[in-house]
Write a structure and sequence with these properties.
The protein is mainly α and 252 residues long. 45% of the residues lie in helices and 6% in strands. The protein contains 10 helices and 4 strands. The strands form 2 sheets. A two-stranded antiparallel ribbon has the order 1-2. A two-stranded antiparallel sheet has the order 3-4. A hairpin with a 6-residue loop joins strand 3 and strand 4. It is globular and about 65 Å long. The two termini are 34 Å apart.
Amino acid sequence: MKLLVRAHERLPDAGLTEAVARKAWKAAGGTRERVAMALRAMASGIERCMYCSESLGTAIDHFEPLNHAPRRVFDWYNHLLACSFCNSHAKGGTFPKGTATGEPLLIDPTAEEPAHHLRLSLTSGEYHCLTPRGCATIDVFQLNRGPLRKGRLDAVGQCLDTLAGCAALLAADDTAGARKRMLRLRRQPLADVLQELRRIADRPSAAVVLGDEAALEALRALYGQPVAKQVFIPQQTSRHQPDCRFWKTAPS
């Protein structure tokens, strides 16, 4: 964005502290609004938080906080849409890095595949980590807090109900009607549940999880066949509990 480039060029060459960066960010109201509009268009569902995907994204989060990197205040690649809980209450200025490499431990959902580090259980609504980065992300953003777990389980039920309706429409050769239903579903909160259903669609356990072979066939038909082979399926080498703190002790 040209507005971000121009704002960055106005930053002082020396003495750029967190306080100075925040003052510049606060003064750039028009630039902030343009960034927010772009991020809202990119977010899953309808303007959902890019971390928890449940709540509305009401804030622009600096992925690398300004207390760590004030010069990235106007860096487009450092901006994510976040809800107030994830942005202020959970993350705040926290930004853990690996002790060996110095690389960030939090997952940037706009730049990498979260499924490489996390696995969502559709039966418990909880995330389990596959890597120290997954553990850090679950821990810092409190991704297994009670309302999120309950919301994900409700979303599983909603997905299955919608898929059952889609199966009936497909049986009646109403593909357009089925796709309309799925479009509405993709706009709902907690899009990670639908993504996980897509990820397991071709696995032997899919019919057990869905509990409805017709719904499973509808999922495959609406997303193309095969589904899961186009989506990364993580291989979990060790079991981590949802409240795992492995990232604080594991080598990076």
